C-alpha cells in the first residue's frame, strides 16, 4: 500500500483498505480523529489498482449528507453521530474527502441490516434456509425482498481477519443484552428511514452496514461512514421491478462493476490484475450517478 500522506498538524495512526486515520499531532490521548477517504477500491479483500478517481470525495459527500438527514433533516428524530466541527485546519490535499470525528470506543459489531436477500445472506439461505440463523420462508430467489428487514450482525474481526456473521445471541455475548437490543433497534430504525428516502429517488437500499461507538457519557453514537456505496448495496428500483435475470434486477450503484470484471478475469490467486480504464471510468460514473439521484430535489 502507498505511504499515507503526511498532513501538517496530524499524525497518521491507521490505514484500512480504503481510509486513513489521523489524530492531532499534539497530545497523548486524542479525543478527535481525522478520517480520510482515499480513492482506493477493494474487492474480494484486495485493494486494486488503479483507484477510482473521485471516489473518496463521493463517499465522504454521501456520508455527510446522510449524517445530516439522520440528525433530523429528514424530519425524523436526531440520531447522535460522531461528527465534530474541526478546530484545526483541514489540510488542503484532503479537503472534501475527510471528516473530523470524535474518537469513540467502537463496538466490535458490524450492524448489518438487510431488506433484500443477496450476497452472503443469499449464500447462507441457499445452504440452510436461514440468514444469520434466522429462518426464512422457502422459495426466495437472489435479490428478492425479505418479508421484513433483518438485523444480521457480524463480528468486526481485528485487522487482517475476515468479519464473520454472528447470531443475535452472540451479539449479546459481545456487548451485553441491553446494548445488543439498542444496536438492533437503532440499526433497523436508520435502515427504515434511509430506505424510505432512497425509494423516493428510484433507489432500493438492499442492505447496509453501520458501526457504532460509545462516547465518554455512554451515549451510543453512529460512527464510521454511513450509507455509502462502500457500506451499502443500492439498486435501481425500476430495473429491479422489470429485470428478469439477477444481473438485470440488481443493477447496482457500487463497485459491482469491479467485482464482476474481476470475477471474470482473475482466478483469485496471487495479485489481482490492473483494472482497465473502461471499468474504472464506468465505476466512477456509477458512483457519481448515485449521489446525483439521491440528493436531487
Ligand atoms: P477495512 O475496511 O480495510 O476492512 P477497517 O474497516 O478497519 O478495515 P477503514 O474502514 O478504512 O478500515 O477505517 C475506518 C476505521 O475507523 C474502522 O476501524 C472504524 O471502526 C474506525 N472508526 C470509525 N469511526 C470511528 C470513531 N468515531 N472513533 C473511533 N474509530 C472509528
Ligand atoms: Mg471499514
CATH architecture annotation name of the largest domain: 2-Layer Sandwich
CATH homologous superfamily descriptor of the largest domain: ATP-grasp fold, B domain
* Quaternary organization: single chain
Beta-strand portion reads 15-25%
Question: What form results from the Cα inertia axes?
Answer: globular
User: How many E strands?
Assistant: 16
Count of domain modules: 2
CATH topology of the largest domain: D-amino Acid Aminotransferase, Chain A, domain 1
Family: Belongs to the SAICAR synthetase family.
GO molecular function: phosphoribosylaminoimidazolesuccinocarboxamide synthase activity
InterPro entries: SAICAR_synt/ADE2_N, SAICAR_synth, SAICAR_synthetase_CS
Catalytic activity: 5-amino-1-(5-phospho-D-ribosyl)imidazole-4-carboxylate + L-aspartate + ATP = (2S)-2-[5-amino-1-(5-phospho-beta-D-ribosyl)imidazole-4-carboxamido]succinate + ADP + phosphate + 2 H(+)
Could you walk me through the main structural features you see in this protein, from its secondary elements to its overall organization?
The protein is α+β, with helices and mostly antiparallel strands. It has two domains: 10-102, 2-Layer Sandwich (Phosphorylase Kinase, domain 1), CATH 3.30.200.20; 105-267 and 282-295, D-amino Acid Aminotransferase, Chain A, domain 1. It has eight helices and 16 strands. It has helices at 55-73, 119-128, 168-175, 177-199, 237-242, 246-249, 256-265, 277-295, and strands at 10-15, 19-24, 32-37, 42-43, 46-47, 98-102, 105-106, 109-116, 130-131, 134-135, 145-151, 154-155, 164-165, 203-214, 220-223, 232-236. Strands 7, 8, 11, 12, 13, 14, 15 and 16 form an eight-stranded antiparallel beta sheet that branches. A four-stranded antiparallel beta sheet has the order 1-2-3-6. Strands 4-5 form a two-stranded antiparallel ribbon. The mean pLDDT is 94.
